[in-house]
Amino acid sequence: MVENARRTGTYLRERLTALRARHELVAEVRGAGLFIGVELRRGGSAAAGETTKLVNAMRRRHVLISTAGPGANVLKIRPPLTFGMEHGDLLVEALDQALKENSID
Question: Which of 3, 50, 53, 59 keeps 20 to 30 A from 75, CA to CA?
Answer without folding.
Answer: 3
